[in-house]
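Q: For a teaching handout, I want to show students what a protein-ligand complex looks like in token form. Below are the inputs, and the small molecule is uridine-diphosphate-N-acetylglucosamine. Please produce the holo structure.
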Amino acid sequence: MLEILILAAGEGKRMNSSRPKVLQPVGGRAMISHLLDSALALGPDRVRIVVGAGAEQVRAALPGFDGEFVIQSERLGTGHAAQQALPQIDAQARVLILPGDMPLIRAQTLKSLLASPADLALLSFVADDPTGYGRILRDENGQVTAIREQRDASEAERAVREVNSGVMCARAGDWRTWLERVRPDNAQGEYYLTDCIGLAVADGRSVEAVVATDADELLGANDRRQLAGLEQVYQNRARGELLDAGVTLPDPDSVHIRGRVVCERDVVIDRGAILEGEVHLGEGAIVGPGCIVRDSTLAAGTRVEPYCVLEGVRTTGACSVGPFARLRPGTELAEGVKIGNFVEVKKARFEPGAKASHLSYVGDAVVGERANLGAGTITCNYDGVNKHLTDIGAEAFIGSNTALVAPVKIGERATIGAGSVIGRDAPADRLSLTRAPQRTIEGWQRPRRKD
Ligand code: UD1
Ligand code: CA
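A: Here is the structure, written as tokens, with uridine-diphosphate-N-acetylglucosamine included.
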């Protein structure tokens, strides 16, 4: 039986933030969400999360979580936090304890710890800079004897670079007997989970520190500097996965991944692009420099030219967007569609081959096959209270600077004269226009300055 206990009650004073530490984002998702993914991949019987500071916020951030939340009402240390959950757990169950602020750990690494036969197994790593971490103390035979926290360590102990990741595993019954004996007699006046190591050794139990090969996975984030460091590691990892999937990144370091991004091969993501939320890019799709693509699915062959902002967009065939276009939620573009520069689209479907090449607003609309919207076409979709639909038929031609006052329907192959304000349905195959006749004033002269 495997139970997982995530310690997430700390407020994270060192972050200097109003949100609980475990909700600080890495790659656009809360640290604890990443950790939970790895924890669940082990197929545990149950996951419990110890919450305290900002408990409601943590709960709200994990809507799909079907384990248990355990409240630690006072922050008396990691040992005290674990103690809040242990009484509910079967004595024989193995309990894997994870600190909530280590988002980069992989399931595989957790498995390597679970493979240890020791009564108390923990993951350690060799840190370039061990500051802030508990140091692993070993005797002359290399056996672990204790963990010493930074603030309680002597100068010699501080020089040790092998540190505690905070990930530990033992049976629930054992954790309980050790934790009952932990005292807050240390620099921080807290009940340290890490004191269990010394107690287990004193009881003659087997203790093993499994040294992780990839130290980056075990980095924790107590402050913004460490969080920024984790972000860098995460981004490098995410970019590496894209490269492995056959994506071209002309300037990998400039691309940011903040969510779950799936790319088919031969996708190109150019310099300075940011991908957020759930993004799917089909084979050969191109995301130009400086683009932001959020929660969107782009079909194979979609080209997004430089500096576009896309959110909630779906393309169903090869089409072209931008440069400088803004596509808002509910935009759907079919094969051969062209959305040009300075065009804003919201909740609108463009059927195959439809075009809005320049300077338009298209909202709450359907644009039929091969219809062409001239520069400056505006759907007036909002009457101040309600939104209305503009329905443009196949092969319609809308002259430049036309206002389409919704609800309104433009027939198939209709032509609308430039500069019109169209408030009534325009019939198929006809020219409709509203335009004041042009006049020329005979004998008119420009006023002249007297001097
Ligand atoms: C802890 C370890 C240290 C280890 C480091 C790894 C202890 C005493 N020290 O130090 O050996 O090297 O993690 O990153 O365990 N928490 C609670 N309730 C509390 C206190 C903390 O739930 O009363 C939670 C925090 O939310 C956090 C986790 O426990 O997610 C670890 O606490 P933190 O304060 O970050 O411990 P460190 O000082 O980093
Ligand atoms: Ca920490």
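A: Two things your students might notice: DSSP finds eight helices and 33 strands in the chain. The longest helix spans residues 224-244.
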